[in-house]
Specification:
The protein is mainly β. Helix content is about 5%, strand content about 60%. It has a 22-stranded antiparallel barrel.
Length: about 800
């Protein structure tokens, strides 16, 4: 294993180009006026530079063909064939504001920002978009660990960044928060095949810049849906693979109509039996968008959503079962009247979610623009469970008398529902000139939901009726946020960044929880979150940055159920270096994240498979992130990254063997000290690519008490990806063939798990701690193949 990790790290030492470099330089203007601060980069790698105060830029690249992108709110692309040093001056006055730029400006950062981030382009998505969820696609990024309940990347998937779970990764779709307002999690299964409608993604690690929704305690993921396409298009994509997995997608685009309108849409279906027994997925989704442009007015209206039906696989399995039957799924298991073990065939999660968004951007002049966004999200659904020997009184059926026998327990089937509505109004204003880029905004959201349970069948039902409620509770969350941030260019070398945010929210709950506990909550939170940073451009090849940011988060619903009301506080310090040589880039980032009252995962799960959290008091994460894009030759590229970290609870206290014990500094749960990845890409001809994708995750504790029983072993897996694009094929513009073999060396590994402990009396009457763990096995060697037909 050490040798494998050595090979993965070796790629960082080989950061250099092997072909002759040439220079492309020039001046970027808006008519006669020089434009400083324009991002200039190659489209294939998105690495490049920015223009100085005089509008001048310079890039050093190996010989070859490139598409240069000049981005300054508006965007221009120019193709070049670099065989000698060239001068290329660019006038931006004739290009139009990019919808993609303006709608995410308030939550995105530029390449030279003092914020640690990674970009994931549409091209990156298309290479592997064969039905697996977005967390699986992002697994190649620095400090990311992803997992799948079903074991093959379809259905319920999750992501952790720098050891922080999905509820602490702030996700926005076109600047609108996606995290559930109560659980704070992001459930990608509710948006099947959303990657097919995604233009690009930006993952900001750490606190990042101010964004809408709950604070980023590990990262923020900003997703931009597809932008307008001025030419008509249609595409049919189909993929098939292991575990009877298949994806069918149909897309269309009208192109530009009357020089003002575009319409596009998508329908998708994904089905899979899953690697884990009965962990099937039946997923459907849609996406429909219209855009309007007239002068300085840009309007984007869209609706999208999905319906997921997935068999539950959130229980995991014990170590003993893991050794005997890796695919065993205990969900739905019960004993029939003959004493035979059976599995209920409809132990499923069934949830629908619909999103409606309207974005209106108005360019007032060359410096000022405004943006107004409206959102409504409607979610509703349930998970269904077969309960053996359930308490009838608890389910409001009551004891049932049959003859002279009183029956207090019965097998029954219940559904636990969540029905919610989410409204958002978001407005921003932006000013940008040669020296200043200023952005400010106001955000208001209103979330309301109903939680209730119903019994749809009982062996002994008495006089109850189908779908009678046995508990009912409501929750309401209101949030108002204001922010202002600016980047100031002090010189060609120095720029500074400042960001202040105020979050003001009220959370109210009434009624009963699923455990039938009355939980009245009416809590206000007021947060002030400052951020600041600076960037120093040493020369055309080396850039340094430093930043500080504070984030604060309110508890989530289950925290209140466990008696936790205090917010979390994070102070994040980042220090980074970015370098480039030719078409190769390298970055290093040192981070220190200090937490007060961090909500860490205990390792245990509740009765719906959700992680249980506890307050750890003081804690910290200290890490070094390395990331590179190394062009070895015209055909070979390496994209390695490595994270080394220490993640500690300070003076952690736990009840063990019947007494409170100070365990000193312990490891934070689910926080491996080593995370590494690499993509080795071979590009023999322009339209053909092969990639070896490697991922190493070091061992990690699944609890916070450093128990040996809680260790989740390290794993090292490799995938093989192949893409061939047949251009100008008969009847089609292009036919793209894609193949993906996951886990090519058939490694038996578990990417996630859980840990629990409790005290009990032994036979001698002494109190001792009992420990246990569960695991989520991932699939061995499996494959997906697909073909996309573009008209």
């Amino acid at each position: 294993m050490k040798f494998k990790l050595f090979l993965l790290c070796l790629s960082f030492w080989s950061w250099q180009g092997f072909s002759q470099d040439y220079t492309v330089k020039g001046k970027v203007t808006d008519g006669e006026e020089a434009l400083p601060g324009v991002n200039v980069y190659t489209k294939s790698t998105q690495s490049g530079t920015i223009t100085n105060l005089d509008g001048n830029y310079q890039l050093s690249l190996p010989a070859g063909k490139y598409t240069l992108v000049f981005s300054y709110g508006n965007q221009k692309e120019i193709d070049i064939d670099l065989t000698e040093n060239i001068t290329l001056d660019v006038d931006m006055s004739d290009v139009q504001e990019s919808l993609g730029e303006v709608f995410v400006r308030s939550v995105r950062v530029d390449a030279d920002s003092p914020i640690t981030h990674s970009n994931f382009s549409k091209e990156d998505i298309e290479e592997r978009n064969l039905g697996q969820d977005i967390p699986i696609l992002l697994n190649v990024l620095p400090s990311v660990v992803s997992s799948s309940d079903a074991g093959n990347g379809v259905g319920y998937t999750s992501i952790r960044v720098r050891g922080s779970d999905a509820s602490r990764v702030n996700v926005t779709l076109n600047g609108i928060p996606y995290n559930d307002q109560e659980s704070q999690g992001s459930f990608w299964v509710n948006l099947p095949d959303f990657a097919s409608s995604t233009e690009n993604m930006q993952l900001q690690r750490g606190v990042g810049t101010s964004t809408n929704g709950s604070g980023a305690f590990g990262a923020s993921l900003n997703i931009l849906t597809q932008t307008k396409n001025e030419t008509p298009s249609a595409e049919i994509s189909n993929s098939f693979g292991s575990f009877n997995t298949r994806k069918h997608t149909v897309e269309f685009g009208t192109g530009l109509l009357e020089d003002k309108f575009t319409f596009s849409g998508r329908l998708s279906q994904i089905k899979s039996d899953g690697y884990i027994d009965r962990a099937f997925s039946d997923l459907k989704s849609y996406f429909l968008q219209g855009t309007f442009k007239d002068g300085g007015t840009f309007i984007k209206a869209l609706t999208f959503g999905g319906n997921n039906i997935t068999y539950q696989a959130w229980n995991g399995i014990s170590l003993e079962t893991l050794k005997e039957d890796r695919t065993f799924n205990p969900s739905g298991m019960y004993t029939d009247e003959n004493g035979e073990t059976q599995f209920y065939d409809n132990e499923v999660d069934n949830y629908k979610q619909d999103h409606y968004q309207l974005h209106w951007n108005q360019k007032l002049d060359n410096n000022w623009s405004t943006n107004l966004s409206l959102n409504y999200t409607y979610g509703r659904g349930y998970f269904e469970q077969y309960e053996e020997n359930a308490d009838l009184s608890f389910h409001e059926i009551g004891p049932v008398v049959v003859g002279d026998v009183t029956i207090e327990e019965s097998d029954l089937i219940r559904r636990r529902w969540l029905d919610n509505d989410y409204y958002v109004v978001n407005g921003t204003v932006n000013y940008k000139d040669n020296l200043v880029d200023f952005n400010a905004g106001l955000f208001y959201s209103y979330y309301t939901n109903d939680h209730f349970g119903e019994v749809i069948w009982s062996r002994f039902a008495g006089d109850s009726e189908i779908r009678d409620n046995y508990y009912f509770g409501v929750g309401t969350k209101k949030e108002f946020t204001s922010f202002a941030k600016a980047t100031l260019r002090l010189s060609d070398e120095w720029s500074v960044f400042g960001d202040v945010q105020g979050r003001f929210l009220n959370y109210e709950m009434k009624g009963l929880t699923s455990d039938k506990v009355n939980l009245p909550v009416d809590q206000d939170y007021n947060f002030f979150n400052p951020k600041a940073g600076a960037t120093f451009q040493l020369n055309s090849e080396n850039q340094f940055y430093a930043s500080y940011g504070r984030a604060q988060r309110e508890p989530r619903r289950t925290d209140f159920e466990n008696g936790i009301t205090d917010p979390e506080v994070l102070d994040d310090f980042e220090l980074g270096w970015r370098a480039e040589s030719g078409q190769s880039t390298f970055s290093a980032n040192l981070y220190y994240m200090y937490y007060k009252d961090q909500m860490v995962l205990t390792g245990a799960l509740d009765d719906v498979g959700a992680p249980i959290r506890e307050t750890s008091g003081q804690s910290y994460r200290l890490g070094l992130e390395l990331d590179a894009n190394v062009r070895i030759s015209d055909q070979f590229t390496m994209q390695p990254n490595l994270t080394l970290s220490r993640n500690k609870n300070i003076d952690f206290v736990a009840e063990l063997d019947g007494e409170l014990q100070d365990l000193g500094n312990t490891n934070i749960s689910f926080s491996p000290e080593i995370i590494a990845a690499n993509q080795f890409i071979f590009h023999p001809i322009e339209n053909f690519q092969m990639s070896l994708i490697s991922k190493f995750v070091g061992e990690q504790y699944m609890g916070n008490i450093d128990s040996e029983a809680s260790i989740l072993d390290s794993f090292f897996v490799n995938d093989f990806n192949i893409v061939y694009e047949w251009r100008n094929a008969p009847l089609f513009e292009t036919i793209t063939f894609t193949g993906l073999v996951n886990n090519i060396f058939d490694v038996k590994y578990e990417s996630n798990g859980y840990f629990f402990y409790y005290d009990q009396q032994n036979q001698n009457g002494e109190v001792e701690t009992v420990e246990g763990a569960g695991y989520y096995p991932q699939a061995g060697t499996n494959f997906l193949v697909g073909v996309s037909l573009k008209f």
